[in-house]
Amino acid sequence: MKIHRVQTTPFTDQKPGTSGLRKKVSVMRTPHYLENFVQAVFDARPDLHGGTLVLGGDGRYYNREAIQVILRMAVANGVSRVLLGRGGILSTPAASCLIRKYRTQGGIILSASHNPGGPDEDFGIKFNTPNGGPAPERVTEAIHARACELEHYRIAEMPEVDIDRLGRIQVGPMTVSIVDPVDDYAELMQSLFDFDRMRALFTEGRFSMRFDAMQAVTGPYARRILEEMLGAPKGTVVRADPLPDFGGGHPDPNLVHAQDLVQAMAAPDGPDFGAASDGDGDRNMILGRNFFVTPSDSLAVLAANAHRVPGYARGIAGIARSMPTSRAADRVARALGVEAFETPTGWKFFGNLLDAGRVTLCGEESFGTGSDHVREKDGLWAVLFWLDLLAARRESVEAIVRDHWRRFGRDFYTRHDYEGLQEDGARALMQALRRRLDTLPGQRLGDYTVTHADDFAYTDPVDGSQARGQGIRLLFGDTARLVFRLSGTGTSGATLRVYAERFEADAARHGDTAQTALEPLLAVAREVADIPGHTGREAPDVVT
Length: 544
Ligand code: VG1
Ligand code: CO
Hints:
Pfam family, one: PGM_PMM_III
CATH architecture of the largest domain: 3-Layer(aba) Sandwich
CATH topology of the largest domain: Alpha-D-Glucose-1,6-Bisphosphate, Chain A, domain 3
Distance between the termini: 52 Å
Family: Belongs to the phosphohexose mutase family.
Number of strands: 28
Organism: Ectothiorhodospira mobilis
Catalytic activity: alpha-D-glucose 1-phosphate = alpha-D-glucose 6-phosphate
Number of helices: 17
Bound molecules: alpha-D-glucose-1-phosphate-6-vanadate, cobalt (II) ion
Helix content: 25-40%
Radius of gyration: 23 Å
Largest sheet: 7 strands, mixed
Low-confidence stretches: none
Mean pLDDT: 96
Strand content: 25-35%
Cofactor: Mg(2+)
């Protein structure tokens, strides 16, 4: 087999963001662009030489071509075995599962997650370490540094590998094992949840569910587990066939982009339980009949009920949430007498806590929930957790959440996204806030008094690594909080995220909608950050 050493010009923009490198497909297809990043991964991870690499993606446009390129580069860089999902498909949590189960040297996941797909849309690539989790910052920095200085990459000349048939293919000295993308993942789910109990819920016939796969990667996973293994009626999983452009939509399970599901859940004879997942299968949205569970509440509810589910019956070690996620889970941790952690946005910051056994459950407000079973957030896992809970408690989603609020109080929560902003304006807004951090404490803004203001910094309690500039926090005592940060997953312009939360202990007031309960606080946010002035926007694009 011929190995070519191809000259490349360094690309200095290959800096992974919140979750991997995401670019427009047209950028990824720039000659040598993908190859440059992949070579940087191989150079930064010498263990891959002679090791095993897990490979797969969410099936979006350019997935199959990128897989072929990476296979050719893997041979050229001395990888001895690639574990590839059939058709180039692996959900992000399934990839994490394979990396861990087969003790591999890591994995490459091709996805831009909840971003749209297609020739004019986004593609993404990220490296996960042998613990199955997204590379921590020290690794992404090493990859970026290498991408900036590379002069050559190595690639084999070989025929296309048929990636659609299960089994082993030998390409030169490298073995490609093409595996079913669902098998190992489904087995892992069986070890965590009570499948008999969930099956009974479906077969008794008084319960119905709708799972919206948003024409993304979870379709085959949800069909197998919900319809084939758990006996849910055919058609429970809708939009189940993964498409390279996700049918033209945003594969993002939230109130805006999964509107079909939200509407179906509002119908008088609608399903009892609704759920959706994103492009790469790591996000989840949980709905009851005409009832939305905020992801922050979902984490808290799962933590408070974990003892009812086989995989967590021994109890949980601790809970971690990303900084902008509401503080609902902290109260549960206190009640359970376990540690609570507040980390920067992005799943990579949970890895050390999970590896050290300090936490069992993790969550983000952005529809991400997960546990120590893998090292990624896991959409279908969260859905099965809820389903098992519904089977155990035989109450509605709404009843379970309202009961939770009565016990712990309610954290009204919302996130307002201002998308496609001019980068200068967005950066100026953050800079102006940052300059005022020292003067804000003690000031009264609307009905609220600032008790603390900072730009969130985090020191990892396990390895001492530090992350700074992770978002502006304005605290108003223990009751309310505003957070401002710029997105790190976009591929054009800037997105401002404004997170608002307010705690309400009084059950008589739990009936309000989040937008009503939070409007006074949101007015403070608009004014203190001068959102209209810096962005020219009067209203957010996406409210979740
Ligand atoms: C967003 C979310 C963050 C999440 C990240 C990756 O990042 O806010 O919580 O971890 O997406 O999710 P940002 O930087 O745009 O706010 V996924 O499902 O796109 O991998
Ligand atoms: Co995702």
